[in-house]
């Protein structure tokens, strides 16, 4: 059989070599003419990039992926076997939780994992986040022996609630969860209190509670909420919860002082006869979104202070819902309305007797001199027009005063001294506008 020659005839042909040399000369000549027509070009020197190396003189090592987060016993398993472990919940939750992101890296989506294992997407996320929180506790000063508490089925839900805390807060909160045997709802409440406590720096009595003790953070939350309570019973109940949560002696002492004050029902700086009751006017500050979250609301006509007694009398006396859609209708047209949560004092106002009066400057109300400097803001005074008789010396009433007959608020004892036995209505609530940083609620003793 004839062998194929690897030698090209063109390479050995003298004529072809001469022709190839001639073509090369023509190409060089054409290139030189083209460069002359373009003109001189400045040469650009490409900088030399040395190969990266470490400071110790070792050769540069390329990037290597981090070690697999999977436990060693799972690394050799194929996806089908990993899905089987998740489906049957084989092992502790924090052992098989890393299988979920590993399957995601293999191309599985949360819906496909849910279809194969029965673990919903929400639960998948909870397991992954809780596993990360647990790993962060292992790398901190947290006692490893306490981690066994979170091995139970609800352990993932407990640790998931601590996800928003920093390392120090997380370790302290987890320790508190173990000590108090909290459920997921209690862990969530604790974590929110710990997260919120530093933001309250500068608030009244904040320094009496300790930021390093999660129980104190939760106690301060209940302590602050007690000042927003609209009844003495709710206030005392909130203070009792604060006392149960407090860890430090300073926090307990401050709560005890407030409990004694709430149980006594008296006002500082006001003389009262033994056993006499006191009529209190709650002062609350609205929070953003509070009306939307309320289970019931009240719709009140609003007057301006300058409209006087005529404005109060002209405000609609009743509002009612009509039809299946509950459309609200008033007895007569009115231009200004206010929607408030259905707080106790507002809900207790007689049907059609409620009216709200807007004051542009809260300092016109009979506050103590020490409080007036902090009231340079608009306030809304809610009054019950069905209770006009000045029957309580300690109550506060809506009146028309001065030559212009502008609306104002006066205490019952001063009205009785003047011989005034009937007012425009009894004040039941004072509402302050919302702020980004909620300040302290006023107490009963802040009135004159």
From TrEMBL:
Protein name from the UniProt record: Rubisco accumulation factor 1, chloroplastic-like
Protein keywords: Chaperone, Coiled coil
Location of the Rubisco accumulation factor 1 alpha-helical domain: 154-259
Residues covered by the Rubisco accumulation factor 1 helix turn helix domain: 78-137
GO biological process, one term: ribulose bisphosphate carboxylase complex assembly
Pfam name, any one: Raf1_N
Coiled-coil boundaries: 229-256
Domain of life: Eukaryota
Region described as Disordered: 19-38, 52-75
Biased composition regions of type Basic residues, renumbered to the chain: 19-34
């Amino acid at each position: 059989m004839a062998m194929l020659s690897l030698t090209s005839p063109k390479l050995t042909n003298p004529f072809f070599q001469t022709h190839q040399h001639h073509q090369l000369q023509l190409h060089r000549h054409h290139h030189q003419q083209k460069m002359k027509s373009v003109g001189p070009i400045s040469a650009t020197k490409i900088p030399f990039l040395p190969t990266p190396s470490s400071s110790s003189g070792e050769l540069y090592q390329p990037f290597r992926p981090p070690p697999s987060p999977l436990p060693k016993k799972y690394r050799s398993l194929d996806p089908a076997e990993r899905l089987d472990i998740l489906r049957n919940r084989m092992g502790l939750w924090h052992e098989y939780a890393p299988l979920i992101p590993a399957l995601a890296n293999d191309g599985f989506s949360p819906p496909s994992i849910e279809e194969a294992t029965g673990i919903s997407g929400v639960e998948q996320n909870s397991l992954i986040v809780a596993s990360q929180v647990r790993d962060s506790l292992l790398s901190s000063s947290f006692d490893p022996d306490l981690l066994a508490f979170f091995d139970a089925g609800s352990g993932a839900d407990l640790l998931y609630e601590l996800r928003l805390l920093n390392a120090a807060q997380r370790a302290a909160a987890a320790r508190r969860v173990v000590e108090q045997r909290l459920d997921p709802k209690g862990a969530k409440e604790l974590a929110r209190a710990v997260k919120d406590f530093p933001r309250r720096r500068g608030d009244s009595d904040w320094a009496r509670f300790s930021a390093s003790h999660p129980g104190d953070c939760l106690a301060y939350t209940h302590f602050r909420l007690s000042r927003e309570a609209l009844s003495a019973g709710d206030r005392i109940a909130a203070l009792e919860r604060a006392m149960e949560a407090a860890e430090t002696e300073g926090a307990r002492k401050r709560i005890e002082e407030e409990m004694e004050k709430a149980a006594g029902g008296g006002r500082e700086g006001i003389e009262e006869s033994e056993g006499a009751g006191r009529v209190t006017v709650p002062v609350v500050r609205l929070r953003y979104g509070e009306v939307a979250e309320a289970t019931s609301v009240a719709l009140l006509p609003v007057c301006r202070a300058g409209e006087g007694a005529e404005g109060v009398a002209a405000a609609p006396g009743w509002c009612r819902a009509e039809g299946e859609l509950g459309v609200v209708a008033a007895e007569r047209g009115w231009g200004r309305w206010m929607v408030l949560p259905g707080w106790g004092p507002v809900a207790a106002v007689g049907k059609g007797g409620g009216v709200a009066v807007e004051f542009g400057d809260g300092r016109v109300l009979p506050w103590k001199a020490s409080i007036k400097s902090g009231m340079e803001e608009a306030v809304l005074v809610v009054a019950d027009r069905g209770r006009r008789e000045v029957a309580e010396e300690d109550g506060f009433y809506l009146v028309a005063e001065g030559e212009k007959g502008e609306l104002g608020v006066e205490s019952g004892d001063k009205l009785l001294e003047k011989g005034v036995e009937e007012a425009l209505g009894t004040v039941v609530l004072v509402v302050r506008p919302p702020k980004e940083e909620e300040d302290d609620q006023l107490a009963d003793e802040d009135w004159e």
